Amino acid sequence: MIDKPIIILAIESSCDETSASVIVDGIVKSNIVAGQEVHSIYGGVVPEYASRAHQLHIVPVIHQSLSEAGVTQDQLSAIAYTKGPGLLGALLVGHSFAKGMAMGLGIPLIGVNHMQAHILAHFIDEPKPEFPFLCLTVSGGHTQLVWVKSVLEFEIIGETNDDAVGEAFDKAAKTLGLGYPGGPLVDKYAKLGNPKAYKFPIPEVEDFNFSFSGIKTAFLYFAREKGPEFIQENIADVCASVQYTLVEMLMKKLIKAAKHLNTKQIAIAGGVSANSGLRTRLQVEAQKQGWQVFIPAFEYCTDNAAMVAITAHFLYQNKQFSSLHDSPMPRLHLNS
To answer: Is the pLDDT of residue 47 over 90?
Structure first.
């Protein structure tokens, strides 16, 4: 008797990307993402507009994902969705659709932790890290150092005491008048500038934790003191300098944690892991430390449903299904 394949439709709607993915026996067959341009004029995500845009995009995104994968609804083994953390209204759209679809098809529902999904994105493609490994998870809402013991075991050994590094990138971009999303724009200009042109403070923070509120304030004062004309004339050097400082803050703690844990298996995940400055710095340090470094493909760094799908695949294998009475959790902890 041939076992039926495990076919899962996954939905991601935690912030401002509506995404759907189909995974068959652990192999991603489609990963469709619809962005939301409406937020660009506001310099950040507007929660109400995000949830409305999800409602518009979710049906066509799911149809396209199923079509690209060559899968019909009656072949699905389960429906997965992001249960948190994220924006409540945005999460509700994905949760409600997934719940209704699972009920209609009579198949299991799988709620996925968004932060676990970012980490497990490393298992979509080769090469894959070996357990245990140290993962630096960096995004607009989180900055964490996680000791990953298995696909179901995560230990946070360090995290930000205030703002996330992705938020610091976006705040710097907004201060410079670069627009939204700011992180990629800072990265773009930084490639053309001198990272040592201007010096910004790196705070001393206990253990393996981070703090980014200080550099946000220091950069704001710097921009005000120099003035718009100076900033415009030296935009590449300014971006390169602030990016260099943020990357060094991350690397300082990553190096410390890797030595403490005596590990050479190093991974990065989350939207900021797409930053070219961080990727380059990580590869340079890998040569010095003898690390084996793992970085997901660009399409799996930012919010996407493929990472939800691979996580759901592991949960399905372990028969960890969700109740139809579960609710989205905007402040969901990594180990919840």
So the answer is: no
